[in-house]
Write a structure and sequence with these properties.
globular; six-stranded antiparallel beta sheet; alpha+beta; 11% strand; disordered C terminus; 23 helices; 684 residues
Length: 684
């Protein structure tokens, strides 16, 4: 009964999505307020019915209702409650339902928070959101119904992929999908703008926070997935250029470019067509990544043959959404006239150049990800594009990108004095070169590219700190005044500074961890030791242990460092009961200087066990930097500019308030002070 209730709720949600897609769009064309207003209640109702369907499927997992096909195929009664719940989105059907739920949630949020938007724009945005939803509802109900019943009900389910039974993978997909689906709002705003033929700073002000929110969630999802890969897979790495990883990285790169491009539209009323195009590309990458990964195309180019209906529907849907949006852009982009001009040396130019590098980087990832598929499908040639290709290309793409990032924050809008800026940054430039030389000396002329990357990371970090110090006039006015100016900085400035500082810190962690890591693989007899870096590792014993739905062997390993530090590590190798799949649970000792990563392998006989030990210097700084970036995104989202509505609304309110004299004088004085602070800060 619960499954039927969920299925019926999805059908009702589809009906409301169709209403939301059609009537407000017609109302906007006719300027009919009643029809345009239908979008809001339809969005609320669609979300409620979709939530009811999701809760119904979750309940089926919790009670282990194996009469539901996806529950029988992806769960069992022995799983802990957390993994029963996360099993809802740990499969194709459930993940599509989660996508649709989040799409309905974003539609409801746009309906609620977009009440200050012009009515026609608001109606068209909600209609486009619903049109995307209609496609997903039809795909789910016709080819991927999560509520299908089994005639022959099994006593026990097949269980879940053991690698997914981890807290990191329980939270990774929801955050990733919040980012994927969040880009649908920017896409809807872009399509609505193309239909209306108008993009202005008010439009950019509405698009930017939604894009930034999606970027934050994408960042969290990617980082959580990387941390999971680092400690769960036992290979000592956090990024392998796997197609699944690339599917999330492509929209992240384009969303990063979109956030910066929207700044230019908001501040200078230019780059309109480019910003709209980025919004379309970002969501197109989200759709492409979701469907390709979930349909299994990247693991086998013949995946469509397994379910021809699903494959054909995917191709048709992608063609309609992506092809249709690009066609509309080609037809209507001439209506988006450019505003202000800017000099070749200016902040606008810096943002444009960085956007180009980010876009090219996304294109490179797309090529590397899709090349094996296209090569096999078109020419029948089996090929692969691995990490060496991506690492080589990205090294050369990211070097100028990071250099311009460090320089761009010092540039003024419209026109900048490059000589004066370089003069101000001469000390930082010198320190960056010094970092390269010191690294080469310390590594006795080791990898030059690693030293260059470390120097560039130092350049970006010091450049951002110097820029923040310049804002608050550090060492130019009394320290108390500098701290006062620091507290008064707009939150968007804090967000920009934290985002770039976090990126620089993450880069430093990446360079150290990837370039100067140590790895030892050896078969040890109980009682034997090995040395790695400053550590001595001794295998003391191996014992069997039992988990809730797995059995394991646990190593007892003594670790002693040269500075006298001593602790015991407990790496495990687990075998799950339902699938007989073996996974590794490495023991990781984390410190600010580096991680010691210990993995126990197979029994080689006569009390001898395979051991893999890694030392990853500065690894935690990657996670710290990523956390600071996310914090910067959230700080920017709390900026006052995103809470006061569009400039037109503010202007109207100020005009109405203009009848009072004394109150207006105070208000004008405060506004003047705020304006002065913004001008001094050159708000990013």
């Amino acid at each position: 009964m619960i499954a039927e209730l969920g299925h019926f709720s999805l059908v009702l949600a589809l009906g409301l999505a169709i209403i939301q897609a059609i009537l407000p769009m017609i109302g906007a064309a006719r300027q009919d307020d009643r029809m345009m207003m239908l979008g809001r209640p339809a969005a609320y109702g669609q979300f409620l019915f979709c939530l009811l369907a999701f809760l119904a499927l979750t309940y089926s997992y919790i009670i282990s209702d194996f009469s539901v096909t996806v529950v029988a195929e992806n769960s069992n009664s022995l799983k802990p409650l957390l993994y029963k719940i996360s099993g809802v989105w740990g499969n194709h059907e459930g993940s599509i339902l989660l996508w649709v739920l989040l799409l309905a949630l974003y539609s409801a949020l746009v309906a609620f928070f977009g009440r200050k938007l012009p009515k026609s724009l608001h109606a068209r945005v909600l209609s486009v959101q619903a049109l995307v939803g209609v496609g997903f509802y039809l795909f789910m109900l016709l080819t991927s119904n999560p509520f299908n019943r089994l005639i022959n009900i099994p006593i026990e389910g097949n269980g879940m992929n053991p690698l997914l039974q981890d807290p990191g993978l329980a939270f990774h997909p929801p955050f990733l999908y919040l980012g994927y689906v969040g880009l649908s709002v920017a896409f809807s705003f872009a399509i609505a703008a193309l239909i209306e033929g108008r993009v202005d700073p008010a439009w950019a002000r509405w698009v930017r926070p939604w894009t930034l929110l999606a970027w934050v969630f994408l960042s969290i999802g990617i980082v959580v997935g990387s941390i999971w890969a680092y400690y769960e897979l036992g290979w000592g790495g956090w990024w392998g250029w796997d197609p699944v990883e690339n599917a999330s990285f492509m929209p992240w790169l384009v969303a990063t470019a979109l956030v910066h491009s929207a700044i230019v539209v908001e501040k200078r009323n230019t780059l309109k067509s480019w910003t709209v195009l980025l919004a379309i590309i970002a969501f197109s990458f989200s759709l492409l990544g979701t469907f390709i990964v979930r349909s299994g195309i990247l693991t086998s180019v013949h995946a469509f043959a397994v379910d021809p209906r699903r494959g054909m529907f995917i191709l048709l849907f992608l063609g309609l959404v992506i092809g249709g949006s690009f066609l509309l852009f080609a037809i209507r982009s001439d209506k988006l006239r450019t505003g202000g001009l800017f000099a070749p040396i200016s902040r606008e130019s810096g943002l444009v150049i960085n956007n180009l590098f980010l876009s090219v980087a996304a294109a490179v990832v797309l090529y590397g990800t899709m090349h094996p598929l296209l090569s096999d499908a078109l020419f029948g040639i089996k090929s692969s594009v691995g990490a060496p290709f991506f690492n080589l290309v990205f090294s050369w793409l990211m070097i100028p990108l990071v250099m311009i990032m460090g320089l761009g924050v010092h540039l003024r809008w419209k026109r900048a004095d490059i000589k004066g800026i370089l003069q101000r940054l001469r000390v930082i430039i010198g320190l960056s070169f010094l970092a390269i030389l010191m690294t080469l000396y310390a590594t006795r002329g080791g990898d030059i590219m690693s030293s260059v990357w470390l120097g560039i990371s130092v350049w970006l970090l010091l450049s951002m700190l110097q820029e923040l110090g310049h804002r608050i006039k550090l060492f130019q006015v009394p320290f108390r005044n500098s701290m006062s100016r620091l507290r008064r900085q707009p939150r968007s400035v804090w967000g920009m500074s934290l985002g770039h500082i976090g990126f620089a810190i993450a880069l430093i962690g990446i360079v150290f961890s990837a370039s100067w890591n140590l790895e030892v693989q050896k078969v040890l007899k109980i009682g034997q030791s090995l040395n790695i870096g400053a550590y001595t590792v001794t295998l003391k014993n191996v014992i069997p242990v039992a988990g809730p739905n797995y059995s394991a062997i646990r190593g007892i390993v003594d670790v002693t460092s040269k500075n006298g530090e001593h602790y015991t590590a407990y790496p495990e190798s687990r075998t799950y009961i339902t699938s007989a799949t073996t996974t590794t649970e490495g023991d990781i000792k984390t410190s600010l200087s580096g991680d010691l990563f210990i993995v126990i392998g197979q029994n080689e006989g006569q009390d001898m066990w395979g051991m893999r030990i890694y030392y990853k210097p500065m690894q935690i700084w990657l996670w710290i930097g990523a956390l600071i970036m996310v914090l910067g995104g959230f700080m920017s989202l709390t900026d006052r500019r995103y809470r006061v509505g569009s400039p037109e609304n503010r202007k109207t309110r100020n005009g109405k308030a203009g009848s009072g004299k004394t109150g207006n004088a105070k208000t004008a004085n405060k506004a003047s002070q705020r304006s002065k602070t913004r001008k001094e800060a050159h708000v990013h």
